[in-house]
Amino acid sequence: MAKEVFVCPEESAFYAQCLHMLLIGHCQTASVIHEFGSGDGMPVIEAVLRACFQGVIHGYEINDVSWNLANNQIKLHQIEHRYIVHNASFFNFCNKPYSSTLVTNPPYLPAWNDNCLYIKGLYGGIDGSMISRRLLSLEYSTVLLMVSSFSNPAGLLQFASEQGYSVVDFLIRPLSFGRYSSQPEVKSRIVELYHEQKAFFSEHYYLLAGVVFQKQNHADMELSADLIAVMQSLQ
Ligand SMILES: C[S@@+](CC[C@H](N)C(=O)[O-])C[C@H]1O[C@@H](n2cnc3c(N)ncnc32)[C@H](O)[C@@H]1O
Q: pTM of this prediction?
């Protein structure tokens, strides 16, 4: 059973801001939203409390300790009717989506394997984009995905485009390398990706973007090009 929980207040607060500004703040009609990897639940709770969101968010979290924390916070804030977190792997329940919208701050740490990580649940495959790609393969019509500048962002956006997604909005900010991204095995993999033009960062920080993807018949990749241009400016 995983004991250590994801703690990165700066990153979680930005995810909450993206949820509010890019999605939930506009969602005044009742809708069902799925969330991959709820953590302690606070990003969604903050976003829901700030908005007049009338729907229900079903979160999935594999880490038992995080799931307990999320449930305690949901009860404390009395939003059990708006946010339900299930202690299960997302992929066991949501391979065929019964909702049209998916939100997530996914695992995006690149490394050659997950053995070295403080928290295995933060492993994003050898280039950091493995879970994000899997999530973009599930046919949700709208996906709010946090995208890191060191996890092969251009490759991920190309993959999204091949799945029929366009980037319709994004927010981006610098984040300091923290406990998880500074682990030597992760940092050395990020440097390898930099040499392959798949990671963009400066000495102390990288960029994290909250990106809204939408399935569209007419691909309009203008925003996608803008997003990559901002990330590549860190080279
Ligand atoms: C980067 S953390 C984000 C946590 C929280 N959403 C936040 O932003 O503060 C990713 C979370 O995904 C969870 N996770 C990893 N694989 C999962 C899976 N297959 N199903 C559900 N949750 C998963 C991890 O345990 C971790 O809590």
A: 0.94
